[in-house]
Amino acid sequence: MKKQALCLLLALALTGCAGGTPGGSTSQPEDASQPGSSSQSGGEYGRRDAIDRPELGTEVVIDPPYDFDPAEMVPTDFGGYFVDCDYPTEVSTYKLAEGTDIENEVVVLKGQEEGPVIYIVAGVHGDEIAGWMTGNLVKKVGIKAGTVHILAPANRWGASAEPRVRFVTEKEDLNRSFPGSPDGSMAERVADSIFQDIQRVDPVFLFDLHEARSNAENRDFLGSSLIYTSLDKMSDMYLDMLMATETGELCSERFNFYGPGPVGSINNTVTTQLDIPTITVETYRGYPLERRIGDQLDIVEYVLTYYGLL
After folding, report:
1. Which of 33, 55, 165, 258 is buried most, with the most CB atoms less than 10 Å from its CB?
2. CA distance 5 to 8
3. The dihedral of CA 118, 123, 129, 133: what is its sign?
4. DSSP readout, 286-297?
5. Residues paired with residue 118 on neighbouring β-strands, in sequence order
6. Which of 103, 97, 12, 36 is nearest to 255 (CA)?
7. pTM to 2 decimals?
8. What is the spatial distance between Cα 130 and Cα 145, in angstroms, rounded to a whole number?
9. Using CA of residue 135, residue 137, residue 142, residue 143, what is the dihedral sign?
10. Which tens digit of pLDDT belongs to each residue from 62-108?
């Protein structure tokens, strides 16, 4: 019955009848074994208890301090994520825009069995650290089949700034610059290099790992949400994921759904121009970092399992 209710709510949202209701909105966001059954035992943090969302408008510390180094850790340090992922895996890298001021590196994981290709773009906004830290953690796992391309952090300039910043350069939002232009601004050139590579690889699914910080009365609470532009080619998986967060099988709390992705975002552009199903994962920057990384890992593992890579 819960899944039927969730399907009805999402159907209403897709027809524009449920905008602004808890759990879903059709407004454009500012930022935008079986899947979900992985063991949550082990690891330093383990499965988290459900958490209470902050009241709208209350002051919350964004990016609370943490005393660990994700770069020195693996997914299982955050809980029961990717526990049985010691498959022999070929790891390689290649450069985007090699030799230019916008050069970046993609890591490729290739399993021993044939399978689909998944592309992960993490950290389009440089200060949304759980997204690109999760991307870096996934680089360390083994996959049974298929191929995973991982670009993390996608905005290496914002991620390496002191302090970290959202933009590529001052006020240039990479996630409003897609599909980009090889002769445009820096953000447009970075967007073009990413978009062209996604088009070349032609994955069956694209992940866009983000974080959100808004908790205002007049803004959608985008933390803990899964953003889509079209559910074509992924409706069953998307609904099952939402239901799994509702029942507590997946992630630390219920996730909202929003759509479509903003014009110029990687989500909207890749979906509409390349017809590749895309989900933007948003975790809330007011929660502890270990929870945010854990939720991102949980969702990535769910999808990789769904497509048969694990």
Report:
1. 258
2. 5
3. positive
4. TS-HHHHHHHHH
5. 148, 205
6. 36
7. 0.87
8. 26
9. negative
10. 999 999 999 999 999 999 999 999 999 999 999 999 999 999 999 99
